[in-house]
Amino acid sequence: MNQYEIGLLFDPGLEVDLDKATQRVEKIFKDNGSKIVKVDNWGKRKTAYTIKKQDHAIYVFYTIDIPPQSVIKIEKILNITEEVLRFIIVKPDLKKIAKAEAAIADKRKRLAERSESEESKDKDENQEKTA
After folding, report:
1. What residues contact 28, with CB distance under 8 A and at least 6 apart?
2. Measured between alpha carbons, how far is 121 from 117 in angstroms, rounded to an integer?
3. What angle separates helix 18-31 from helix 71-79, to the nearest 10 degrees?
4. pLDDT digits (tens, 9 = 90+) for 4-33
5. Residue-wise burial string across 21-47, b where 16 or more C-beta atoms lie within 10 A, e elsewhere
6. DSSP 100
7. Per-residue pLDDT tens for 56-102?
8. What is the helix (H) or strand (E) element at residue 10, kind and residue range?
9. CA 10 to chain centre
């Protein structure tokens, strides 16, 4: 199984009934042997351009483990699903993501060390002034 990220733009009229639409899409994923790892609902937002006479869409992003042979089946089904305005399926570069996360953690560590050294320096200066 490979990990994929799927971005879906749902019809904005589904804002009230979004649960049914997401359940339908999640059923499509599960019927094709996929495992949903993470769901990120961004809510209703303005689109960059008009899609099927709509200026807004409900953005929902999934991180999913999918067998490689099922990706094409899922694409075909999403193409004819009425609730979905647009979708994109992307295979993330997990090595680059891990490298970026490590770099962020290292940067945070260096900033924390720098702020600790500045705090100790300030304490030393205050002790010298009071002495």
Report:
1. 74, 77, 78, 81
2. 6
3. 150
4. 999 999 998 887 888 888 999 999 999 999
5. bbeebeebbeebebeeeeeeeeeeeee
6. H
7. 999 999 999 999 899 999 999 999 988 899 999 998 888 888 888 89
8. strand 2-10
9. 16
